[in-house]
Design a protein that fits this description.
alpha+beta, 2 helices, globular
Length: about 80
């Protein structure tokens, strides 16, 4: 059960130069709940927050993720 939930809600880390924190998110009404757990980061990587969570407006979440993906694509897919 938890494994299935993780598959649906986890932003999987990437390789070849991109390391993303273990980020989980789900839509709750018109808010996106974001939580993370970085207790076991890769060697040499340090996050400012080991664990945490927040709820933000759905439209803000979509805007930020979209901008991030655009910048990511510009950097990695030239």
């Amino acid at each position: 059960m938890l494994y299935d939930w993780n598959i649906r809600h986890r932003w999987h880390g990437a390789s070849n130069g991109a390391i993303l924190a273990d980020v989980y998110f789900q839509l709750v009404d018109d808010l996106v709940e974001i939580s993370w757990n970085n207790e076991e980061p890769d060697e040499g990587i340090e996050f400012c927050a080991i664990q945490g969570g927040a709820r933000i407006q759905e439209d803000t979440f979509y805007f930020i993720v979209n901008e991030f993906l655009k910048e990511y694509a510009l950097h990695w897919f030239k």
